[in-house]
Write a structure and sequence with these properties.
heterodimer, A: 289 residues, alpha+beta, Uridine Diphospho-n-acetylenolpyruvylglucosamine Reductase, domain 3, Enolase-like, domain 1, 2 domains, five-stranded antiparallel sheet, four-stranded antiparallel sheet, 14 strands, B: alpha+beta, Ubiquitin-like (UB roll), DNA polymerase, domain 1, five-stranded mixed sheet, 5 helices
Chain lengths: 289, 160
C-alpha cells in the first residue's frame, strides 16, 4: 500500500476533478467499511483515495421546504438514527440503514457507500427504492439525478459514469397516511448478510392503498423495483387476495443464485413471505400517520 | 511517496504522527503512537478488538485510515483509567472475571463505555445487541454482559 495518494477536499468540484483525473484507479472514501476491507484483502489497490467527508453537502441531513429529506451520501447510520425527525418520517429506510453491520460499523457506514458498493444484498437499497428516493450525482459534466433503482448495474458495479460521485439522496415529501418498512431474512438475529431483503412503502386513504412501491434485495444481480407487486397492492384494502398477488409478483421477479446463504427455491419462497410481513408493518405505520 | 503528517487529539492530549496514506488508524496507534492497547483481531471490522472513539462515536480503528484522524478527537483504551484509578467498567470486569485471554477486553471496554454514555440504563438485550460487534472466544459473553449491567447499576446508585 505504498503508492497510494490520499486527498480530503473541502469542495465537491475539487473532489470530482481529482477523482475524474485519476481514472479507474481512484476510490471514493466515505465510511470505508467496504473499501478498507477490500484494500486489506488485496481486491482493490487504489492509486488515489478521495475522502469526501470534509464536503459539507455530503455529510448533511436536511429537511427540505416541501417536507422531503436530503441525506448526504456519506452520512453514517448512527448520524441518521440520531436525527430527531428522519426516523419518524422514514422508519423503514432508517431500520434498513441501521441493519448494516455492528455499532462500530454504524458509526461509519453510509447509505451512499452501501449503494455504490453494488452488493445485491445491500440492506439500505430496497428500502431506498421503496421510498422512491432519487440520488444526486456529480461528475466532470455537471450534476444529474438518477432513480436509486437505476444505480446498481450488477454485483459490485454501478451505472455511475467515470468520474461521477454520488452526492446525496433526495427522499420525497410524505403524504398523510404513509408508512414504510424493511425486513430481511437472515438465519441469525444480527450482523449478517440478507438472504432476502424487502422494502415496502405505502400510502393509505380511507382504508384503501393509494400508492405503493416495493424493493427486493438479494434475489437477483441487482436490487429490484417490483412494480407488479406494487400494482397488486394499489387500489386494494390490503386484503389477503391483494397480498397473495403481490407476494406472487415478488416471487416471480426473483432471479436468484444458489449459495451458502440460501437456495434458489428458498429465496423465491421467502421473497413472497417477506412482502406480506413487510407490507403489514408499513400499513400499520401508515394508519398511525 | 512522502509520509503524511497528521495532527490530532488522542485521549484529550494533542498528538501528531507520520503515516503512509494506506495505513489504518490501528496501524498508527500500535506503531508510531505506541498505543498498543487497541488490538488487531480480524483487520476487517468483524471482531471489535480495535474499537476506539472517533469524535465520541464508536468505530473500528482497522476500518479508518490514519490520515483521516487530522483535526479529529480520538479516544482509546489508554484514556479510560485516570492514573491509578480504574474506570468502573474496568474494575467490574476484574471483579467479575469478565475476561480470560484479554485480547478482546480493551475493545469490549471501549464499546461498553460508549454504550453507557449513550444509554446509562441498558437492558440485557440492549447490551447484547450493542456488543454484537465485539467477539470473545473465551468467556461465552455472559460474564461480560453481567459486568456491564452491574457497572451500570452501580454508577446509577453512585449518581443518586
Amino acid at each position: 500500500m505504498t503508492d497510494i495518494r490520499y486527498l480530503s477536499p473541502h469542495t465537491l468540484d475539487e473532489a470530482v476533478s481529482a477523482f475524474a483525473a485519476a481514472g479507474s484507479a481512484a476510490r471514493i472514501l466515505a465510511g470505508g467499511t467496504d473499501l478498507l476491507v477490500q484494500m486489506r484483502a488485496g481486491v482493490v489497490k487504489p492509486g488515489l483515495i478521495v475522502d469526501i467527508k470534509k464536503i459539507a453537502e455530503m455529510t448533511a441531513i436536511e429537511e427540505t421546504a416541501g417536507g422531503g429529506f436530503r441525506v448526504g451520501a456519506a452520512v453514517s447510520g448512527m448520524e441518521l438514527a440520531e436525527h430527531p425527525r428522519f426516523g419518524k418520517v422514514w422508519p423503514g429506510v432508517l431500520e434498513a440503514v441501521n441493519l448494516i453491520g455492528s455499532k462500530q460499523v454504524q458509526g461509519r457506514a453510509s447509505a451512499g457507500g452501501n449503494l455504490c458498493n453494488g452488493s445485491p444484498a445491500g440492506d439500505s437499497v430496497p428500502a431506498m427504492i421503496a421510498a422512491g428516493a432519487i440520488v444526486i450525482v456529480q461528475g466532470p459534466n455537471g450534476r444529474r439525478e438518477m432513480k436509486v433503482e437505476d444505480v446498481p448495474a450488477g454485483p459490485g458495479r454501478t451505472n455511475l459514469k467515470p468520474g461521477e460521485i454520488l452526492v446525496s439522496f433526495a427522499l420525497p415529501p410524505r403524504p398523510p397516511g404513509s408508512g414504510d418498512a424493511y425486513l430481511r431474512m437472515i438465519p441469525r438475529t444480527e450482523m449478517d448478510i440478507a438472504v432476502v431483503g424487502c422494502g415496502v412503502s405505502l400510502t393509505m386513504k380511507d382504508g384503501v392503498c393509494t400508492a405503493a412501491r416495493v424493493g427486493l434485495g438479494a434475489v437477483a444481480p441487482t436490487v429490484l423495483l417490483v412494480e407488479p407487486a406494487a400494482k397488486a397492492l394499489i387500489g386494494s384494502k390490503l386484503d389477503d387476495a391483494a397480498l397473495n398477488a403481490a407476494a406472487a409478483a415478488c416471487s416471480a421477479a426473483c432471479r436468484p443464485i444458489d449459495d451458502k446463504r440460501g437456495t434458489i427455491a428458498y429465496r423465491i419462497k421467502v421473497a413472497g413471505v417477506l412482502l406480506k410481513r413487510t407490507a403489514a408493518i408499513a400499513a400499520k405505520r401508515a394508519r398511525e400517520n | 511517496m512522502a509520509k503524511l503528517h497528521v495532527t490530532t487529539t488522542i485521549n484529550g492530549e494533542p498528538a501528531e504522527f507520520l503515516c503512509e496514506p494506506g495505513d489504518t488508524m490501528l496501524d498508527a496507534l500500535r506503531g508510531p503512537l505506541g498505543l498498543t492497547g487497541s488490538k488487531e483481531g480480524c483487520a476487517s471490522g468483524d471482531c471489535g478488538a480495535c474499537s476506539i472513539l472517533l469524535d465520541d462515536r464508536l468505530i473500528c480503528s482497522c476500518l479508518m485510515l490514519a490520515a483521516e484522524a487530522e483535526g479529529h478527537e480520538l479516544g482509546t483504551i489508554e484514556g479510560m483509567a485516570h492514573g491509578e484509578h480504574l474506570h468502573p467498567l474496568q474494575q467490574k470486569f476484574l471483579e467479575m472475571a469478565a475476561l480470560q485471554c484479554g485480547i478482546c477486553t480493551s475493545g469490549m471496554l471501549v464499546a461498553s463505555d460508549a454504550l453507557l454514555r449513550k444509554n446509562p440504563h441498558p437492558s440485557e438485550e440492549e447490551v447484547r445487541f450493542w456488543l454484537a460487534g465485539n467477539l470473545c472466544r473465551c468467556t461465552g459473553y455472559d460474564k461480560i454482559v453481567r459486568a456491564v449491567l452491574e457497572t451500570a447499576a452501580e454508577m446509577q446508585e453512585a449518581a443518586q
